[in-house]
Amino acid sequence: MSKLNAFFFLWTEKTQTSFRSLDSTQVSSLIPILTSLLGDHSPLTIGAVAVAFDTLSSTRLDLLHPHYRRLCRMLCDIDEWGQVQVIDLLTRYARHMFSAPGVGQHETR
Length: 109
Known about the structure:
Elements: H1 3-20, H2 24-38, H3 43-57, H4 68-74, H5 80-97
């Protein structure tokens, strides 16, 4: 494991522990910052933003609406560890927001 990857792993573990100790008022004040970070165009930051999103507001998938397609396009440029986090986030978004094919459609013959 490279030094950068080791640093990222340790940073995310420490950050998740810190975020768990926040109360709901602190989390709600961090949501606008998280939303602006989701709009960042740098592939270097998106992996860390995905980790922070998962830790802070994993149920607020509606915050991803304006960023979904751009995150899909950026996926190949994000580092390996960030790709795992972003793919997990995009998969949860797709399962929650997209309807299943064929559900609610009746065949007519």
